[in-house]
Amino acid sequence: MNVAVAVYDVKQDAFARASEAGPAPKRVVVGFGFWVFLLSDIVMFSALFAAYAVLVRATAGGPAGPQLFNQVTVAIETACLLASSYTCGMMSLAVSARRRLDTYLFALITFVLGAAFVYLEVREFADMIARGAAPQRSAFLSAYFTLVGCHGLHVAAGLIWLAVMMAQVAIKGFRPAVDRRLLCFALFWHALDIIWVWLFTAVYLMGVHP
Amino acid sequence: MTDAPYDLAPGDVSIFGKAARMAASGVGIYTIGLVLAVILTATSFWVANTSLLWALGVPMGLVVLAIAQMGVHLVFFLHITTAPDNTNNVLALAFGVFIVFLVVVGSLWIMTDLNHALMPSSGPMNSHMQH
Q1: Fewer CB in 10 Å around end: N or C, chain A?
Q2: CB contacts < 8 A (A, B)
Q3: Do A194 and B10 touch (CB under 8 A)?
Q4: Rounded CA gap, B98 and B84, in Å?
Q5: Each residue of B106-120: pLDDT tens digit?
């Protein structure tokens, strides 16, 4: 009985201190706001996923997944994105430890891996279009190019953002505003990796077998 | 009990529990996450290509592996935990997952149902329509 009361008191205390401490620091507010944006972005992707799943059989007599998808390319793309997520984490650690050289190094590796991913995807798209599997060929291909292309656009935007952030670190240094933007960038980059997990599962791996 | 008067920003490491003790070597958290993610990804590619498994169970297995890998990314890369200073982040995530589930499963359910209903010569409904 006594123990239960004691635990209850401690919990009350923890919540009271969180709610009575006044406005949260800007880093927490900005991080949470960006987290909500990322979740809304994921909800948008869920609509594209739903459209793809509904239209995956609507090939209109054109080529279907098994003839189009190359698992080796997908595996390399996955490896690039996963490794870049890891080096992005290393960059976050270097930023919080204020190690400028490590920050540049890991940002560079992250950028190169992300650029390799975008290059492979553009090559894959160009190859498919050259073989007559363009977005206008069938509803399945329209949904495919929209879904995968939207993720590719996000990665490309992330690359530009990363380059801008490194310029800001070089010019402005690790001031709080730059710090918060780097936190948001890391969240963005890791969230893109989560979307890619669902992409290679739902589109490529489930698509190779009819 | 707590030295943290505020909730945490997503992506910041919680001071509670095991994560706090491992945060001393933050590289460890990311490395564990990378190893788990690589294992799960490799398993996904194996499951999709093997003939050892019952073919109809493969999609379900792939979904389970993807959910597991999503959890690994959330915990080890985004540092979303169930610690008390993460309540806001987890609640937002739960709402997001709920909406995603509604959109994807709802669309698939309704469209599959419509496909069945509109299938030509599919039993009593069609013959009824011809009268």
Answers
A1: N
A2: 148
A3: no
A4: 21
A5: 999 999 899 888 877
